[in-house]
Design goal:
The protein has about 250 residues and is an alpha/beta fold. It contains nine helices and seven strands; from the N terminus they run E-H-E-H-E-H-E-H-E-H-H-E-H-H-H-E. A seven-stranded parallel beta sheet has the order 3-2-1-4-5-6-7, with helices on both faces.
Length: about 250
């Protein structure tokens, strides 16, 4: 069912993993999709072709989420090409996991810059268009690390907790203008990030998950698409846990 038909949606950090799955899912539901990426032109080109093969428009921008000027230029380009911006999915993120005694200033600042400031930049650049249209949705991809904290992830947990606070504050700011802001707190999802975990750590993590397995990107993308749709029109300021019950 193409319940996002006619919408113009930005998905950040979409060249692989969860962002890629969300970009393809909203395209299947009829939305035109713009996305940014930082490194791989090849991966971005493949995703753009896959989105266009679904019969919708696709725009790819090589832009750093942590650079407000680059983000503003991208948002302006998307508005020019699509005519509107109906939704933003703030997914761009990275990890630099270390115990705090070994964590450098760069490890801290790089994670905060991409995972939290990046979401601020895209929200800041796009929200006026939504407020003017009296409709729109922002979906922030957070983590259970931001809900319960994870050892070795002081930087990542801080950024993801910040996203949750940002979600609730912004939802209160822009709700009267018809703009909804929500977050999804993800658990262990099978991506390049979790693939790098040692098997003993994977087994230990699985043992803590009531459903007994890591999630798949297919467990995340349909919920993201729903949260951007009119079916979720009365949901704002919410944090949806997709974690197999880990953070209960």
């Amino acid at each position: 069912m193409k319940y996002l038909e006619g919408m113009g949606i930005i998905v950040t950090g979409a060249s692989r993993g969860i962002g890629r799955a969300i970009a393809l899912e909203v395209a299947r539901r009829g939305a035109d999709v713009a996305f940014n990426y930082l490194k791989s032109d090849a991966q971005a080109g493949e995703l753009k072709a896959e989105i266009e093969a679904l019969g919708v428009r696709a725009l790819a921008f090589k832009a750093d989420a942590g650079d407000l000027k680059a983000v503003r230029e991208m948002v302006t380009g998307v508005k020019r090409e699509f005519g509107k911006i109906d939704a933003v999915v703030n997914n761009a993120g990275l990890t630099r996991d270390k115990l705090i005694m070994m964590m450098s200033e760069e490890d801290w600042s790089e994670v905060i810059r991409t995972n939290l400031t990046g979401a601020f930049n895209f929200s800041r650049a796009a929200v006026f268009n939504m407020m003017k249209a009296k409709r729109g949705a922002i979906l922030n991809i957070s983590s259970i690390s931001g809900v319960v904290g994870m050892p070795g992830q002081v930087n990542y947990s801080a950024a993801k907790a910040g996203l949750i606070g940002m979600t609730k504050a912004l939802a209160k700011e822009v709700g009267r203008h018809g703009v909804r802001v929500n977050a999804m707190a993800l658990g262990f999802i099978e991506t390049d990030m979790t693939a790098a975990l040692a098997e003993e750590h994977r087994n230990a993590a699985r043992a803590m998950i009531p459903l007994g397995r890591f999630g798949k990107v297919e467990d995340v993308a349909p919920t993201a698409a729903f949260m951007l749709s009119d079916a979720a029109a009365y949901i704002t300021g919410a944090v949806i846990h997709i974690d197999g019950g880990l953070a209960m």
